[in-house]
Structure formats: C-alpha cells, structure tokens
Amino acid sequence: MLLASTRRLRAEVLIVLGLSLGQSAVYSVVQLLDKMTQGPLAHATSTLNRSQSTREYFDLTYQLLDIAFALVPVVLVFYFLSLHRQTAESPSGFTRLGFNFARPGRDALQGLGLAALIGIPSLGLYAAGRALGITTAIIPSGLDSYWWTVPVLVLSAVRHAVVEEVIVVGYLLDRFGKFGWSTTLAIVLSALLRGSYHLYQGFGPFIGNAVMGLVFGWIYTKTKRVMPLVVAHALLDIVAFVGFSVFGKAIGLG
C-alpha cells in the first residue's frame, strides 16, 4: 500500500512538472544548445516578457492569458495537496506550504531582506558572467510602451514568483520528503531544477539561480512558509522588469 502511494505521488510530481517548470527546464536546455551552436553565448540575447503582437490590445490579451494559464499548475498543486488531507481538520495545502496572509508584516519584512540578500550579488554575478562569456545579454522586458505595460510587468513578476516558489520549493520539498529523501538532497534537487530552467540565459544565471534555490530551500525548511520567498522573488522581478522598461532606454539599454 505504501509503495503504491509513493508511486502515485511520483506520478503526480511528474505531471505537475511536465505541465510547468519541468517543461521549462527541457526547453531551456534546448534553447541553450541552440544558442551555443550559433556562436559565443556572449553574443546571444535572452528577452523576457516578449511582445506577442504589434496590435496593442491583442498584445495585452496575450500577456494576460499567458499569466493566467501559467498559474493553472499552481491550482493543480493545491488540488493534489487537498486530496491527501488525512481529515477535514488537517491543515489545508495553503497552510501546509505557508502560502497565506497569516503574518503579512513579518513575511513582507523577510521577503524584503531576502530580496536584498539575493539581488545585490546577482548583479555582480551577471556582470562576471558577461565578462567571462558564459551569460547571454538579458533584456528583462521586450514590451512596447503602453499604458498597461507596467501593470502587466508587475503581474508577470508576481506570476513567476508564485509559480516558482510554490512548486519548486513548497510543493517539491513536501513531496520529496514523502519519498523518504533527506532534506539536503531535496533542497539540492530543487535548487538544480531552479537553475536548469534558467539555462537559456547562460551558465551564469544557472549558477546564480541554483544558489538562490539553496538559500530559499534552506529558509523554507526553517520557516515552513513559502510566502516570504514569493515576496522576495516578486520584488526582484518587479525591479528588473519595471526598472528596465521605465529606465532602460534612458541609460542606454535595450
């Protein structure tokens, strides 16, 4: 019975990853190989938040649809977690992963601190990766300037934060623990997955995001709350996406 349950959980994890970040990791590896076979990585470009139409309101529609459908695997995660509740009084999936507003002030402060801890070294790592030729030029926003550009970039940042932290940290560490794997192994595998779906940006972002995954995974095992990680990740992406969109051209970027 226990073996059958473990098999079901493994199938569940494969389904979730196949519909979300596992799929992204596969595409990322292929994109990296594509770029490497065309020339030096230093000459390649990775554009985030691409425009999907030259027509303003169709572009807006596509952007919002992408954000909405990207969150479906998160809904699936919480559905799966609800199926395995032992009793009606057992903690919900939201409570188990700490994805709620039970302590908004503390989560916000911890998230802000984590954003500073991760964000500042990331800039240095990006510069080093570019100098070594192992990182592509990253353009955080390829959207045209419309009235909705900044709100959509903020929503995109929140989307990435929720999807990655809920699935790669909260959900996977919960499931890896049920497989009987050690906490250290679970954190390392989670961190490597985080790095792998950033490989399309080069080896520098792979290393940086893997290290970020180790830090976030360790913090999660201590706090059992994914919300501070979501806050930190969202802040990092908002600064990158919106900052580039608003100030990029003014400082000669893009």
From TrEMBL:
Membrane among keywords: yes
Pfam families associated with the record: Rce1-like (PF02517)
TM ranges: 60-81, 108-128, 203-220, 227-247
Biological process annotations from GO: CAAX-box protein maturation; proteolysis
Keyword presence, Transmembrane: yes
GO molecular function: endopeptidase activity
Xref: InterPro entries: Rce1/LyrA-like_dom
Domain (CAAX prenyl protease 2/Lysostaphin resistance protein A-like): residue spans on this chain: 147-238
Keywords, sorted A to Z: Hydrolase, Membrane, Protease, Transmembrane, Transmembrane helix
Protein name (record): Membrane protease YdiL (CAAX protease family)
Organism: Arthrobacter bambusae
